[in-house]
Amino acid sequence: MHGNLFLPEKLYCHFAEHLFGKQMNDRWLEVTVFTRVAESGSFSRTAQELGLSQPSTSRIVSGLEARLGVKLLLRTTRSVSLTEAGAAFLKGARQAAADLEDAEDAARGIDSLRGTIRLALPIAYGSRAVIPALPGFLERYPELRVEITMRDERQNLVVAGVDMAIRMGTLEDSMFGARQLASVPRVLVASPAYLAKKGVPTVPEDLAYHDAILHEPNFAEKSTLKLSKGGVERVVTLQGKVKFDAAPGILAAAMAGLGIANVTTVMSSQERKDGKLVHLLPDYELEPLKAFAVFPSGPKPSAKVRALVTHLFAVLGNR
């Protein structure tokens, strides 16, 4: 049970205790059931978690839809998905739960934060930058727990039920809240074996004659790269036989000698230090990759998420 996803833990316990035979707010019951169905994608799982029958769970959501006059969920025999109205309602329900949780946290004091933070991370940056920063955070807030999912593709954060995600590059979800955590330098690298075979590029234009390891989620055939030196920018077109949609594959391919890769300094620091990869064109700068914290609940995340963002900004922003 993740209190921060729909109700604070204390309030949920109160809800469970008074579910039958005692007075309670029907709207909170509707919100709780709907939120858990939307996040789990299952009426039966929600019924089991909340101690309800499946017909009761379905009736509660149907009653909410009837009261609002809109369809919130699309139901089939195999799946449950959000409508546009459902996604908007889920966002508001989470924000209401976060506001209640903030009230509890304010009463307890910031150092007494508790509950669970569900965090979505990109694989490489998450593994090499974010996760190593977590021990200090959890030491300060021992009542908090962190649940982490890791993938490079940009999932639907509302449906995934996360409190916060780290995203690299440009942002597209304007309805979400966000804060930049870091600006991560990038470098061109290749293995000594590849360079011994193909030669070392000395100017950006040389890259056109090399094999590039492409990071293209849509597997485009070409990729452009901007390099600058002394305020002068050069744009080169890269082509390669190997393309990846996830960063760890790029690093592995570069070490295997498959070509030249464009990677972050965080991602490749140990491999460059060990001599497994060589930094190419060191006099030229690549545009850094920005790292953002993104909040599906909107511009004002919960107190515990704000505490995590403050910690990550202090650690990652100084690198």
Give the secondary structure arrangement, pairings included.
Blueprint: H1 3-6, H2 9-17, H3 26-40, H4 43-50, H5 54-68, E1 73-75, E2 80-82, H6 84-108, E3 115-121, H7 123-140, E4 144-150, H8 157-160, E5 164-168, E6 177-184, E7 186-190, H9 192-198, E8 212-215, E9 222-229, E10 232-239, E11 242-244, H10 247-255, E12 260-264, H11 265-273, E13 278-280, E14 285-286, E15 289-295, H12 303-316
Parallel strand pairs: 3-4, 3-5, 8-11, 8-12
Antiparallel strand pairs: 1-2, 5-15, 6-15, 7-12, 7-13, 9-10, 9-14
Walk me through the structure.
The chain is of the alpha/beta class. Helices cover 43% and strands 24% of the residues. It has 12 helices and 15 strands. The chain has helices at 3-6, 9-17, 26-40, 43-50, 54-68, 84-108, 123-140, 157-160, 192-198, 247-255, 265-273, 303-316; strands at 73-75, 80-82, 115-121, 144-150, 164-168, 177-184, 186-190, 212-215, 222-229, 232-239, 242-244, 260-264, 278-280, 285-286, 289-295. A 5-stranded mixed sheet has the order 4-3-5-15-6, with helices on one face. A 5-stranded mixed sheet has the order 11-8-12-7-13. A 3-stranded antiparallel sheet has the order 10-9-14, with no helix packed on it.
